[in-house]
Amino acid sequence: MEQKKVGIVGLGLMGGSLSLALQAVTSEYRFIGLDHNQQHTKEALACGLVDEIVDSLDAISQCDIILLTIPVDAIIAIAKQLKGLQPHTTIIDLGSTKEKISTSIPSTIRHHFVTAHPMTGTEQSGPKSALSSLYKDKVVVLCDMQKSGEVQRQVAQRLFEQLQMKLVFMDAKSHDRHAAFISHMPHALSYSLANAVMLQEEKESIVALAGGGFRDMSRIAKSSPTMWEDIFRQNRENLLEAIDAFEQELQTCKRLVAQEEWEALNSWMQRANKLHEIL
Amino acid sequence: MEQKKVGIVGLGLMGGSLSLALQAVTSEYRFIGLDHNQQHTKEALACGLVDEIVDSLDAISQCDIILLTIPVDAIIAIAKQLKGLQPHTTIIDLGSTKEKISTSIPSTIRHHFVTAHPMTGTEQSGPKSALSSLYKDKVVVLCDMQKSGEVQRQVAQRLFEQLQMKLVFMDAKSHDRHAAFISHMPHALSYSLANAVMLQEEKESIVALAGGGFRDMSRIAKSSPTMWEDIFRQNRENLLEAIDAFEQELQTCKRLVAQEEWEALNSWMQRANKLHEIL
Prior knowledge:
Two copies of one chain form a homodimer.
Chain A: E1 4-9, H1 13-25, E2 29-34, H2 38-46, E3 52-53, H3 57-61, E4 65-68, H4 72-79, E5 90-93, H5 99-104, E6 113-118, E7 139-143, H6 150-162, E8 166-170, H7 172-200, H8 203-209, H9 212-219, H10 225-234, H11 236-258, H12 262-273
Parallel strand pairs in A: 1-2, 1-4, 2-3, 4-5, 5-6, 7-8
Antiparallel strand pairs in A: 6-7
Helix pairs in contact in A: 7-11
């Protein structure tokens, strides 16, 4: 059987891990990579993330499946440059915000697109950080699927099932709002925490006193600024609203501590404990 | 060789894990437990955390080593009730704040005390959550050691070395300030995050969209309110100052996003990335 060609634009953690995970379960795909970072293309070849590197979008346009694992603005820019797609060509973007992508893709090619958000990642980036286990058992949110073609929906769903992911369907606008609260705002907190602590504390004290709590709370402050600047930009309004909602809770905490209302503080903490029932 | 008697007051995660960890490396200790919670004493016996349960402090007072794994106010209250200590009796408290303990212990018995803070824990509590691996390779901060007797210092250091912990020495006042920034304030953030998200989001969305970031950031919001109310009370001023420092960073983030100063936001995130060099 001839291998299907999978073009990956953006050879980082997400794109690289996708290739490794698919290679682990099937040999039906051949992987073709494109990245403007020469170091990354070398590493991707060396780590076996792709079979071949190309340097133009023409070669990518001819692939059966095109994975766009790059920032949101780059996804939109690249989408407008893809030419000569075959009827079955399936373009899957993994942008962290979905509404702008869903509405910005030219209508002539919109049905080729399946716009997806896998709820996974690490604080690492680049081809060397790729993990074959990154997607397994994780959720992928598929947005505005009514805008995708029938063939494209099937191809994408099959691919995410091969990755052993759990499929969740949502409209792009809801996705962005939920993601602001559950993913993006927590990143703003982690960056703020890391900056506040490093401003106040010596390295030695941080190393000595950092228990599991601080390590967990500050881990995502190590995430790529390039990627997260883009996400914050794309989801600006939802993010600001989510930060406001967080600040109200922190204000409550501060007030209860300042006014020594310990019973009310305990109840407020008990309310947070309800998370035990959810996660 | 006759076993040394170790009395544990407070049969929860910390006390229970200490017993399991010591039992795993030596048979030189016999463990005697006291807890006002009858369910916990039963579970502690059933889980093999202690050899014997007693119901009065008299039996604990006669132990060679006394571990106080209870909240700070309880540590201070119990300290005043311990009677008839032997010259070598070593009392180790694991309270999360240290200055009040260090200065509140009656001077007649202060030299018996070694006041320690192991930088470890989980979001679980109670005897069933005890783990033999909880202390291994973790830091224990030993405070104001000049106030402890020579024998007591040696006994405590040997015990923490048996637990394979890394010993860090600090004055109690500095400890409390560092702990506010590196441990206590992050708990306030996690509780606030959990409350903000559960107020805004349905359970289904949280389950669907929670990636590793949110799971890590919200994990310690599951911590015991009884324990953390006490810690916030004991370290109130340092905690409020640490929250203020955090808020300044979050305000910076919010301002840069609101005013669309993306380059400055990227630099601010890069500053947080320096944590890579520390942890």
